[in-house]
Automatic annotation (TrEMBL):
InterPro entries in the record: AmpC-like, Beta-lactam-related, Beta-lactam/transpept-like, DUF7586
Pfam families: Beta-lactamase, DUF7586
Residue intervals of the DUF7586 domain: 353-436
Protein name (Swiss-Prot/TrEMBL): CubicO group peptidase, beta-lactamase class C family
Domain of life: Bacteria
All copies of domain Beta-lactamase-related, residue ranges: 19-323
Length: 460
């Protein structure tokens, strides 16, 4: 559980800078209220607010609607099903949810908004109407949901996440809200995250563009569209969720699966990093990953800076006006510049197998120099020693091979090849051969090496 603890607090000057930037966001964005929270190394170390809710300053326990951040919760539920072996991300929707008009799309395409289906439901606008007007998925998708070639483009789809919510319901045999509560909210202690508002909560407002006047916005039960953006939450709760997204919790989802969610599948625009599985890599100076949210009367943001161990959440109860994204970027900058993170202290490995240590050091792909490094838990890393080269980290497997975790060799196999006496002859990396010497005549090199070996180039 994330909470304000006895861990080293933020510097008073940093807290004042955060408070000042939040106050600016509320005043310049003309929001009735703004709240925010900062997580550092798993702990909620700062909360701030500006403006009022029902005549008083909002607190970390005041609910706001978080809109499309709901999609990140849905993605966690889907990845849980994948990790349990109940589905594969490459499965067609028809495999688990027969009878829809998007059955030929895959689970991965829906999660990454690359299914090419409609962004919204048919009229009326789902965000301001009761879900009862769309009692079936056919009403959510409409008669012709296909808009673009599946798998070819990023095309944000609220309707697509309604389908994912229905898929979760089908495989779990329970309503979406019950599954979410049992599998995510309760284990993480998110007791103030709900499908409908529970007091104390903020009222959503539209702010008149040319006069300082407010108009209340409605908040309906979106029905089948709830997985696209219905959740309400608090700074305290969403900070706990952010800490989970940073570090994982095996009761809910492993850190490896969360890292998979962060990795872009499709580029959203030329400047952005791209959209992963229910999370968007926004790129920029701090390499932020997260999700934004908007519903009538509310704006929200949740962003992680994994390398810095930081996360920020922010809510405003205004339909438009405040720039939550700019606020989050500035808050991150204020913390990182004033209080840079100390690197973890280097420490030697407690033990290492001699055979693994013997694999370390220089290797050559042809004449290109590389090196193998050994890390904890028998992980290997291939690094280039030249001007350029394909680098990757490798996870050990039970059969004595290693599997690439990133870069060009993601998913590819690294094998240590030995002769009849057990001596290492070379490394086979997805059919590429790495040897201890560059093109040595006695080495195992595909195509062989000329018998004269290295020498002066013959005259032509």
């Amino acid at each position: 559980m994330v909470a304000v603890t006895d861990a080293p607090p933020l510097l008073e000057s940093t807290r004042r800078a955060l408070d000042h930037r939040l106050a600016r966001a509320q005043a310049e964005g003309r929001a009735p209220s703004f709240v925010a929270g900062l997580v550092r190394d798993g702990e909620l170390v700062w909360t701030g607010s500006s403006g009022t809710v029902d005549g008083a300053a909002p607190t970390p326990d005041t609910q706001y609607r978080i809109g499309s951040i709901t999609k990140t919760f849905v993605a966690v539920l889907v990845l849980r099903l994948r990790d349990e072996g109940r589905l594969d991300l490459g499965d067609r929707v028809e495999t688990h949810l027969p009878g829809t008009s998007v059955g030929d799309r895959t689970v991965l395409q829906l999660l990454s908004h690359t299914a090419g289906i409609a962004s919204e439901t048919p009229s009326p606008w789902w965000e301001r109407t009761d879900g009862a007007v769309r009692p079936a998925l056919a009403d959510v998708l409409g008669p012709e949901p296909g808009r673009l070639l599946a798998g070819r483009h990023f095309h944000y789809s609220n309707a697509g996440f309604a389908v994912l919510g229905a898929l979760v319901e089908r495989l779990r045999g329970r309503p979406f809200g019950e599954v979410l509560a049992a599998e995510v909210l309760e284990p993480l202690g998110l007791r103030r995250t709900t499908l409908m508002p529970v007091a104390p909560h903020a009222q959503g407002f539209a702010v008149h563009p040319w006069a300082d006047l407010l108009l209340p916005e409605p908040a309906h039960d979106a029905g089948l569209m709830a997985p696209a953006g219905q959740l309400w939450s608090t700074v305290a709760d969403l900070s706990r969720f952010a800490a989970f997204l940073l570090d994982g919790d095996d009761r809910v989802l492993s850190l490896d699966s969360l890292r998979e969610m962060r990795e872009p599948v499709a580029r959203t625009d030329p400047e952005a990093g791209g959209y992963g599985l229910g999370l968007q890599a926004s790129g920029g100076k701090h390499g932020l990953v997260g999700h934004g949210g908007s519903m009538p009367g509310f704006l929200a943001g949740l962003d992680l800076a994994p390398d810095a161990g930081l996360a920020l959440v922010a809510f405003a109860n205004a339909t438009s006006g405040p720039d939550v994204g700019a606020l989050v970027e500035d808050l991150f900058e204020a913390v990182v510049s004033a209080e840079p993170r100390f690197p973890e202290a280097w420490a030697p490995l407690p033990e290492a197998e001699p055979a693994l240590v013997a694999l370390t050091g220089p290797w050559y792909w042809g004449a290109a120099p590389f090196a193998i490094k050994l890390h904890a838990d028998r992980y290997l890393e291939l690094v280039t020693l030249g001007n350029r080269g394909r680098e990757s980290r490798f996870r050990p497997q039970a059969d004595g091979t290693w599997t690439g975790r990133d870069g060009y060799y993601r998913g590819e196999t690294l094998t240590v090849v030995r002769d009849a006496d057990g001596a290492v002859t070379h490394l086979d990396l997805a059919s590429f051969v790495l040897t201890r010497e560059p093109y040595a005549p006695a080495d195992v090199v595909p195509g062989g090496v000329g018998p004269t070996g290295w020498g002066t180039s013959p005259e032509v």
